Amino acid sequence: MNKLYVGSEVGQLRRVIIHRPERALTHLTPSNCHELLFDDVLAVKRAGEEHDIFANTLREQGVEVLLLHDLLSETLSVPEAREWLLTSQISDFRLGGVLANDVRCFLADLPNQELASILLGGLSYGELPVQSSSMMQGVHERTDFVIEPLPNHLFTRDTSCWIYGGVSINPMAKPARQRETNHLRAIYRWHPSFAGQGFIKYFGDEERNYENSTIEGGDVLVIGRGAVLIGMSERTTPQGVEQLASSLFKRDEVNQIIAMQLPKHRSCMHLDTVMTHMREDTFSVYPEVVRKDVQCWRLTGDESGQVDVKEAGYFVTAIEEALDVGPLNLITTGGDSFESEREQWNDANNVLTVKPGVVIGYERNVYTNEKYDKAGITVLPIPGNELGRGRGGARCMSCPIERDGI
Fold first, then answer.
1. CB-count burial class (<10 Å; 0-12, 13-18, 19+) for 330
2. Which of 33, 296, 396, 399 is catalytic?
3. Which family does the similarity line name (predicted)?
4. In sequence order, what DSSP letters do the residues of 69-108 get, joined into one string?
5. What would the pLDDT profile of 255-295 be if each residue is shown by its tens digit?
6. Of the given ranges (66-80, 165-179, 331-345), which has the lowest mean pLDDT?
7. How large is the average pLDDT for residues 193-206?
8. How far apart are alpha carbons 35 and 67 in whole angstroms?
9. What percent of the chain has pLDDT above 70?
10. pLDDT tens digit string along 235-255?
11. Could you give the residue ranges of the DSSP H alpha helices within 153-224?
12. Which of 104, 180, 356, 379 could form a disulfide with 159 if both were Cys (CB 3.0 to 4.6 A apart)?
């Protein structure tokens, strides 16, 4: 049995969940993309081809690639999982009792692959082949969604994140992404690769209103040696960090959490868009955001779940102490101020480390990739002209479920 365990950001990557963008992208339009948290519409076929190159690059590095669509489809073959997903994703509160029942009856007859495609990719009123007695059809246009597409599922990093011997199934900050979490709850609960495997679910497995305690995996860096680095960003709150921290300390999986306060703006949506770990002592950073005056705290605790919070000063020193390395090598975004801003926007700092000093990144970020190369970091380049429009790089598009420690 393969071990579900992620011991670092830079140890050998062994298994990963990724999601090939499909149906959801066909539903993106200039009039709805912002509501669905995309800045642009993508060329669907080309985005899929670019993602295939990403998947093959991972496989060439010896990484086992699990595709989210397949995992969800296989989970739907478990009757209990199918019933739970239909009830939770198409609830009476979401659509009203009459339409919800009619939609569930229609979906219940679909094959698993097709049902997975609709749950991930959405369904418009015009595509619904059911005439319901509900008022809902009468008050909606054909282009309105019965089930909203989930284009951000492309970024599998955010919805759940593995931390040492367990997983946080993350309550997402934005309504456009909240339904994603139920897909991962179902997969981890019922899919044969996960059911009964004895891993810890730290946070987020219960169906409840998590209110202000939101976390997204792009803000969580498992830096190794029992330490975790978390960015408090537009999407991850101090309340969410404290809830996760309490569970991690209770299970004795972590010895400390370093929490950094990030600015709440789009260019810095998650910590990993401005900072990633590339080798034990080496990080990429975008210095415009990851400045010396960033507020930083160290969280510690014990098996009671009590969390002790102390200000930690300069985050670089806190990381050096946690990893027992130093001085840290920080590689800043390449080019002049215009070029570095453009490259950070195109995810130059959001690279996926497959083993120490070897990373996958977008080929378009030439100035930053040159700096990585000069620092002894090997970049395995992938095209990102379409994928990058979703504002996420190789780290965003991957959820490691098995990775060595350091």
1. middle
2. 396
3. Belongs to the arginine deiminase family.
4. HHHHHHHTTSHHHHHHHHHHHS-HHHH-HHHHHHHHHHHH
5. 999 999 987 765 567 899 889 999 999 999 988 777 888 99
6. 331-345
7. 91
8. 26
9. 98
10. 899 999 999 999 999 999 999
11. 156-159, 175-178, 180-190
12. 180
Which amino acid, residue 326? Answer: G
Three-state secondary structure call for residue 387: helix
Largest Cα–Cα separation, the chain? 68
Q: Is 253 exposed, middle or buried (0-12, 13-18, 19+ CB in 10 A)?
A: middle
Alpha carbon of residue 9 to chain centroid? 14
Could you confirm whether 396 is annotated as catalytic?
yes
Q: Which two tokens stand for residue 148?
A: 């909203």
The DSSP H or E segment spanning 55 is helix 44-60
49 contact partners, CB below 8 Å, separation of at least 6: none
Task: Give the 3-state secondary structure of residue 240.
Answer: helix
Instruction: Specify whether the CB–CB gap between 114 and 76 falls below 8 A.
Output: no
Q: How many CA atoms lie within 13 A of 93 on its CB side?
A: 3
Q: How far apart are CA 290 and CA 281, in angstroms?
A: 17
What separation, in Å, do the N-terminal and C-terminal C-alpha atoms of the chain show? 22
Q: What is the pTM of this model?
A: 0.94
pLDDT digits (tens, 9 = 90+) for 95-154: 999 999 999 999 999 999 999 999 999 999 999 998 888 888 888 899 889 999 998 899
